[in-house]
Amino acid sequence: MSRRACRRCGAVVTSGAGHLIRTTVFENGERMPILVDARSGLPLFDPCIFACTEIRPRTGSAATVEQALRGVQVLLAFVDDRQIDVAQRIATGRFLDLCELDELVTVVHLPLSTAATSKRSLASMQNRPAVVNLDRVRKRAPKQAEEVTVAISTVAIRLYYAGCYLQWLGHRAAKQVCASLEQKNDYMERLAQFLDQLRARTPNARSQSTRMGLTAEQKAELVRLTDPACPDNPWAGNFVRDRNRLIVLWGLGTGLRRGELLGLRIRLLDFRRNMASIMRRPDDKSDPRKYQPNAKTFERVIGISEELAFLTHQHIVEHRTRVRGARKHDFLFVAERTGRPLSLAGFSKVFRSLREQHQVVGHALTAHVLRHTWNEDFSDIADQAGLSPEDELRARNHAMGWSDLSKTADQYLRRRTHRLATEASRRIQHAVIGSGCQGTEHAQVEDRR
User: Fold this and answer.
1) 384-398 b/e (C-beta count within 10 Å ≥ 16 → b)
2) What is the pLDDT of residue 33?
3) Which of 138-142, 313-317, 375-379, 388-392 shows the lowest mean pLDDT across its residues?
4) Contact 330, 267 (CB under 8 A)
5) How confident is the model at residue 249 (pLDDT cuts 50, 70, 90)?
6) Contact 196, 167 (CB under 8 A)
7) How far apart are the first and last CA of the chain?
8) Residue that wins the pLDDT comparison between 367 and 409
9) Which residues contact 214 (CB under 8 A, 6 or more apart)?
10) What's the confidence (pLDDT) of residue 387?
11) Looking at residue 126, what is its pLDDT?
12) Which residues are paired to 303 by β-bridges?
């Protein structure tokens, strides 16, 4: 799959397997990805209606709509290559057979540029003569490169939105092809069984992640390195040093995602009460960035310490105001040369510099690692304060922007969970064999006497 910009309108185009995802920018500044036919350039009716009625109203984010359309794009590439009539399958309630479903899951693991050709390659291999000279084949066969596959998280997202699209088609078809309530119930039951089969084949992306927060030593070293007065600081210039220190301190102190950090606005910072408002603003007209960062979770108001508020205010007054172009907007973090809001690429470069020049802070250091670190620190403080599990869960979910019923916190507490499990295991071992060891030591002492 490749990304390019349209020469006529500047829209971002994601291409692959006969279909294009073209992001259209309207006059009011809103961005809307649409799935179009690669040959005619015309939008595909069903995927566009699905995106406009199902995805867009729930999230409002163009990035989420594009992500959903990529799942639909892979599904359409699969059915087109295998000449599967989706409309006919949906109308009859047959959907995909188990063998087709397994093949879809296999294809989803491949890059979109090669997914549509996977069956053709398989068919050509099957049509080869059964009797061949093995020595000749070995001589002329080129060395095959390792098969390129996408990340497990990408596979899970593709299958999720492919299932959402098929579910949407099924619900719409049930109203058209079912003449009675009994037929509709039977149809919906078959649809539910098919979706369950698809979900059973969808990998759990979260279980594959091994990301953990920083250790106490790594966190102390990170704070030391980002101090503008530190001789080992990897950046040059007072503005960049002060801005990057502030980015790290905000990440460690609040656990905000990178989209939330880049979306911080000065007018939403209350320095009297030391509070910060985290807002969701998809397709913000005042944001000139091509790829706009945005809050992924719920809007909320969080507290900031007096020290962080002081350093933030000092950065605004002494450093940010001196950058040309920074007064045209109120985003907190800006680029040094242009004063424009700091881009996602520029933000990632901050942590890449730390990883490359100071590996002691962790070879996988990212802004999200700071989010994991905050959650582990929060657990320690909650234990010291004696918070009940219910109060701790509610406070954590509010700070992170998660729903009250969210279980996402489990993914951010791997180090703490490992430590508690290790301590519990040692206590069990001590309870089981501790007394026996003491008896053995006492017997050894008696023998010596």
Assistant:
1) eeebeeeebbeebbe
2) 86
3) 138-142
4) yes
5) very high
6) no
7) 79
8) 367
9) 222, 361, 362, 365, 369, 370, 372, 373
10) 84
11) 43
12) 275
Q: How far is the C-alpha of 69 from the C-alpha of 51, rounded, in Å?
A: 7
User: 238 — phi, psi (to 5°)?
Assistant: -65, -40
Distances (CA, A) of 258 to 335, 342, 438: 15, 11, 54
Ranked by mean pLDDT, the top range of 56-65, 126-135, 175-184, 264-273 is: 264-273
CATH fold label, 216-376: hpI Integrase; Chain A (1.10.443)
pLDDT, mean of residues 225-254: 95
The dihedral through the CA atoms of 252, 254, 258, 261 has a sign that is negative
Name the residue with higher pLDDT: 383 or 419.
383
- What tens digit of pLDDT does each residue of 50-87 get? 998 988 887 667 888 888 999 999 999 999 988 999 98
- To 10 degrees, the CA torsion angle through 178, 183, 185, 186? -120
Tokens representing 429 are: 């071992």
In the numeric block, the tokens 């040093």 are attached to 241
Asked if 232 and 262 count as a contact pair (C-beta separation under 8 A), the reply is no
pLDDT digits (tens, 9 = 90+) for 195-224: 999 999 998 876 556 678 898 999 999 999
- Closest by alpha carbon to 154, among 103, 200, 205, 197? 205
Going by C-beta distance under 8 Å and a sequence separation of 6 or more, which residues neighbour residue 190? 93, 95
CB 371 within 8 A of CB 413: no
| HEC readout, 421-437 | HHHHHHHHHHHHHHHHH
What are 250's two structure tokens? 């905000």
8 A C-beta contact, residue 15 and residue 2: yes
Residues written for the chain: 449
